[in-house]
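Q: I have two molecules that I believe assemble together. Could you output structure tokens for the complex as a whole instead of separate predictions?
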Amino acid sequence: MLDMRLIREEPERVREALVKRHMDPSPVDKILTLDEQRRQLIQGVEEKRAERNVVSKDIAKMKDQVERQAKIDEMRQLGDNIDAIDADLKAVEVELNALVSELPNIPDPDVPVGVDDSDNVVVRTVGELPEFDFEPKPHWDLGPELGIIDFERGVKLAGSRFYVLSGLGARLQRALIYWMVDLHVKQGYLEKYPPFMVRGEILYGAGQLPKFEDNLYKDHEEDLWMIPTAEVPLTGLHMDEILDEAQLPLRYTAYTACFRREKASAGRDVRGIKRGFQFDKVELYTFCRLEDSPAEHDRMVSDAEETAALLGLPYRMMLQSTGDLGFGSHKTYDIEMWAPGCKEWLEVSSISNVGDFQARRSGLRYRPTDGKNTQFVHTLNGSGLGLPRTLIAVLENYQQADGSIVIPEVLRPLMGGETVIRAEG
RNA sequence: GGAGGGAUGGCCGAGUGGACGAUGGCGCCUGUCUUGAAAACAGGUGUGGGUUUGCGCCCACCGGGGGUUCGAAUCCCUCUCCCUCCGCCA
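A: Yes, here they are, computed for all two components at once.
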């Protein structure tokens, strides 16, 4: 949610942001008109309310019944008048709110202007791409051959885009989750285990509703929705709270499953485990003061990078262009790992500085130590790595000529000392 | 699933139609006193919105929404959440 004051005072900045994102800037004018209307209606209705408050107090003291009744009649009329203006005001506010809540965040000046993800900029590449003296296989061949990914039974259970991990495959994923959460705790994040389902207002606060309703699973009898990422419950944790400045920054990490209907990418990436309706992820999340968010962003990027580096997987750091930048994001880095079997760069992590965009929608504020007005916090979120894609990177980068997989060293203690995944495993 | 009881400011807790944005206590801040601290005493201490150069003024908010009324924390309806008991089930 953008600050109405910003839209009012610097509409050009907002229009420019929309243009950079290839969106229609015309709602800005409509918003300005509605905002003006809103304030006029408020002035009118509050003036009348003030009058009613004064007269009502007088009525309580009146002895003369005739005069008293006359005032009561007068106030009844005034009340009807107030109700009428109130109805207009409400209609204007609903329309205004709908338009403002669909405005995306303003991109940071550093964000390259582009059409889509092909305009994302490579910031750095870390690690050497592995060389193979054989033709590396994609994970959708390796997994079934080793008996660690069962696509057929996943489809039997739940349909397309589902799979079953088996044996050391399941254990490898569990080890990755355990190891990642532990690493983030060491990096200074507090571990959380939130609900995987939340109420609609929490999704609104995180910016997922109303715009992305199609992408979410929902309980149709209750206002309960499956989370598409741990970012959603973590954002909602402090909804409507006023934190003390001294508490900040708050850094959290959480493992959750994530559920996405993938309506927007129907038919894409249907092969393998890259894009499922359900996947696991370890998330990083920070609430901080506005002036600290760029530094916190850098910190989260390097914490996520450490995860990739310790696994011994080559990756590249991308800065998203305005064509790829998420709705609520101010600036986003992606970590992409190379998958030699699929022969593509996999987005394993997306680390965003959201600024006060979610804080405004969720009511996340703090009171400065100097006692001045409350401020909105800045929020940042990032995957400490998405599991399926990290799993793909491990399987495809660590594969051997005989089809076996060497287990990354850091995970071996969590896998009972196993060093290699072989067929029949 | 059945029966009943609750939800008030940072916390505790009064308030059942008009002077209540809300008594009181605790906590916190400031001042007086003190070498310092404590104690005591005095004052202050919510959020959002509108308006104003500013001081300020006004409006709304007593779990959420709606209603009755000239006027609602207080009465009515409804939803959510919490507690107690019974039943059922992991």
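A: One point stands out. The first helix of chain A runs from residue 4 to 9.
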